[in-house]
């Protein structure tokens, strides 16, 4: 009986994966060939014919080596997918929304200020900025969709600009409560609520509305059917 | 909607479906698929393993080395992951849609 391990190692030489992984692939493929060969022999095929039929399973070893390599390095592709589907659209959405905020602060109308109570932080809305945010959210979702993002990734990409604020408020304010003994707790709690509301929730809803609109429109425009290629 | 890559999709559906019954190594997987489809679907080594590795990287299946108690051979057995189980249902739906569409089409053609 042929040494299948040796045969596979020779024919797949140059497989660019790490040593342990390469050895495992050789062992696995050799075991498959060995079982195929034994099965054919059991059916009564002579050695030579069984050998030929077994080896006929791989018409082009170089092509097999290339395809295994591509499949095994898929981790990198997943990383690339994540960058293209989430990080890049998210960061662009962030840059666009912050740029719009800067413009609104310099050239736009004064913000709408809601003074809830004396002594507590105020709630401030840049209304014109909020009105532009669906556009930024739609851009994030569109870029993510073009990169093949799932509906969940599309939604995250569109609300990406408020995520850093959310994280900061969720960490900084409770930390302030623990550290800043000089501050009255009700003021810190009120600041937390107003900031979360004014800088995370309301802009988040505006961004998400744009993202959801993109999802809705793309669902409508994609006709059901089979794409053969 | 049925997505592209019909041939690859069929193969992936076959592998996920056969692994739904329990873990199998590559050779046994190919043998059972051929047997259960009465020879309509055949996987050569060259077709099977790149696909298994790709599906493993996607997290649909997981391979682990096991030693057969009867032959003492070491084999890499694959089993479905929760992500693979989740993938199976929409894949089945897509293929049911495709075959339904083809059935309707061929009926019209013969009418």
How would you characterize this protein structure?
The complex is a heterodimer of chains A (229) and B (111). Chain A contains nine helices and two strands. Chain A has 229 residues and is an all-alpha fold. Chain A folds into two domains: 4-72, no CATH class; 81-221, no CATH class. A two-stranded antiparallel sheet of chain A has the order 1-2. In chain A, helix 5 (74-107) runs antiparallel to helix 6 (127-146) and helix 8 runs antiparallel to helix 9. The two termini of chain A are 42 Å apart. Mean pLDDT of chain A is 84; it is low at 223-229. Chain B has a single domain (6-110), classed as Winged helix-like DNA-binding domain superfamily/Winged helix DNA-binding domain (Arc Repressor Mutant, subunit A, Orthogonal Bundle), CATH 1.10.10. In chain B, strands 1-3-2 form a three-stranded antiparallel β-sheet. In chain B, a hairpin with a 6-residue loop joins strand 2 (61-67) and strand 3 (74-80). The longest helix of chain B has 29 residues, at 82-110. The model of chain B has no long low-confidence stretch (mean pLDDT 86). Chain A binds chain B through residues 24-25, 27-29, 31-33, 35-36, 39, 56-60, 63-64, 67-68, 70-72, 74-75, 78, 222-229, and chain B through 1-6, 25-27, 30-31, 44-46, 48-51, 53-54, 57-58, 65, 73-76, 97-98, 101.
Descriptive terms for the model:
A: 229 residues; mainly alpha; two-stranded antiparallel ribbon; 3% strand; B: 111 residues; alpha+beta; Arc Repressor Mutant, subunit A; 4 helices; 3 strands
In short:
The complex is a heterodimer of chains A (about 230) and B (about 110). Helices cover about 75% and strands about 5% of the residues of chain A. Chain A has about 230 residues and is mainly alpha-helical.
């Amino acid at each position: 009986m042929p040494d299948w391990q040796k045969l596979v190692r020779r024919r797949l030489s140059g497989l660019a994966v790490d040593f342990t992984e390469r050895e495992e692939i050789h062992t696995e493929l050799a075991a498959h060939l060995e079982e195929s060969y034994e099965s054919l022999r059991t059916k009564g095929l002579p050695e030579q014919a069984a050998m030929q039929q077994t080896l006929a399973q791989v018409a082009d070893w170089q092509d097999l080596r290339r395809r295994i390599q591509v499949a095994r390095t898929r981790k990198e592709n997943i990383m690339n997918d994540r960058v293209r589907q989430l990080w890049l659209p998210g960061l662009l959405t962030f840059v666009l929304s912050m740029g719009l905020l800067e413009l609104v602060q310099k050239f736009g109308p004064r913000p709408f200020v809601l003074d809830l109570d004396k002594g507590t932080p105020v709630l401030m809305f840049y209304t014109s900025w909020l009105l532009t945010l669906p556009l930024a959210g739609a851009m994030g979702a569109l870029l993510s969709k073009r990169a093949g993002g799932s509906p969940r990734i599309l939604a995250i990409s569109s609300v990406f600009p408020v995520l850093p604020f959310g994280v900061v408020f969720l960490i900084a304010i409770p930390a302030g409560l623990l550290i800043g003994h000089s501050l009255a707790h009700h003021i810190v709690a009120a600041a937390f609520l107003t900031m979360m509301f004014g800088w995370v929730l309301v802009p988040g809803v505006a961004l998400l509305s744009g993202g959801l609109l993109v999802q809705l429109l793309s669902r409508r425009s994609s006709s059901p059917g089979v794409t053969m290629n | 909607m049925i997505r592209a890559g019909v041939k690859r999709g069929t193969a992936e559906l076959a592998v996920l479906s056969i692994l739904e019954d329990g873990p199998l190594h590559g050779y046994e997987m190919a043998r059972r698929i051929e047997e259960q489809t009465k020879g309509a679907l055949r996987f050569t080594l060259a077709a099977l393993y790149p696909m298994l590795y790709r599906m493993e990287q996607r997290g649909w299946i997981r391979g682990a080395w096991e030693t057969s108690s009867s032959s003492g051979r070491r084999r890499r057995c694959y089993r479905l992951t929760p992500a693979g189980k989740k993938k199976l249902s929409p894949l089945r739906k897509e293929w049911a849609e495709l075959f339904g569409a083809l059935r309707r089409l061929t009926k019209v053609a013969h009418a």
